[in-house]
Hints:
Two copies of one chain form a homodimer. Chain A is an alpha/beta fold. In chain A, strand 2 (64-70), helix 3 (75-82) and strand 3 (87-91) form a beta-alpha-beta unit. A seven-stranded parallel sheet of chain A has the order 3-2-4-1-5-6-7, with helices on both faces. Helices cover 41% and strands 17% of the residues of chain A. Chains A and B meet through helix 1 and helix 5 of A and helix 1 and helix 5 of B.
Amino acid sequence: xxxxxxxxxxxxxxxxxxxxxxxxxxxxxxxxxxxxxxxxxxxxxxxxxxxxxxxxxxxxxxxxxxxxxxxxxxxxxxxxxxxxxxxxxxxxxxxxxxxxxxxxxxxxxxxxxxxxxxxxxxxxxxxxxxxxxxxxxxxxxxxxxxxxxxxxxxxxxxxxxxxxxxxxxxxxxxxxxxxxxxxxxxxxxxxxxxxxxxxxxxxxxxxxxxxxxxxxxxxxxxxxx
Amino acid sequence: xxxxxxxxxxxxxxxxxxxxxxxxxxxxxxxxxxxxxxxxxxxxxxxxxxxxxxxxxxxxxxxxxxxxxxxxxxxxxxxxxxxxxxxxxxxxxxxxxxxxxxxxxxxxxxxxxxxxxxxxxxxxxxxxxxxxxxxxxxxxxxxxxxxxxxxxxxxxxxxxxxxxxxxxxxxxxxxxxxxxxxxxxxxxxxxxxxxxxxxxxxxxxxxxxxxxxxxxxxxxxxxxx
Lengths: 225, 225
């Protein structure tokens, strides 16, 4: 379905301007030697639940912070704070994704001594994929109840991510979801994806994901020594 | 978070042009006395599974058709056809919602003698809410595994819908989802919502929803006699 010429020009304009701001955010984050993860998924895939578990695990050894992106409400930031992690809210009031300029506006609230900064994007498997936020890594989450046919139906999020996290794996015995099939399909779209199976309920995969992020932090710091 | 003046102008332009085309589609559908339902939800909430059951139930007495909107692939249309219902695919190739002009492009494929036309929108709880497609009714679906905190986090879809369908209710005994709480919250946002609890697995709520649609078809036809 073709976009009008005007729509294409404005979109290019927005994306171009976003890319510039994201580049400057990325530079600052790397100067502070912070590993930043942009987390994408549909509403209800378990982004906040994963962050509660993963954030607490990392917080045993590191300084962790979370930026919460939501269309409305501060519910997720409240959950994260209740779990014991610092959280900063960005409410988009209708917008379907975070943009780098939104981060720029709250950037001076982010402590420079963080080790890990997680950005929970707006719940939307489509639009956030087009917007670089200056992150070091991008995660795409898909929960078992959503079904194993999603990667090819929503390819952009999988193409642009570094890590594919299958969430709510405690439900695998009860629902028709083939984790091997969905992994193969995701890797077909993007062979560089690292894949993790997790459950915020049982804790499955949290240690492995935490170890992966520790390694990535070391890599980032040895490159930016 | 403020949009730039240029972004606001272009958005108004797109929505204004969409409204005009939607108006002309609505008029044609009413001339044909077709009841059209635009279905919104996150990816994986069970739009296609609901349509398989509801469409077959209605097809016992009526002529039913389905338009399938997807970012990529024709998987959902194939499922609907396999279930025994006619389906027409709109693949948006990246776009996060259906627009009226996309429907206009395939409109001559839709038989004029349908009773019910369902439009399964792109899986996205945010963007499709802003685009009128000329429908008679709008449904918003939320599945039990997505969590009961969604209406206020994604209000637009609930504000602009006529019907709120809670899907995958067979999972209610196993997951922390308070159906009364989510119903109360949705009605707080939009007191006119009709609420149905359904399960495509057990068939719960399918007869009630089918009866509701039959009544709405009679209403439409008595108004447009």
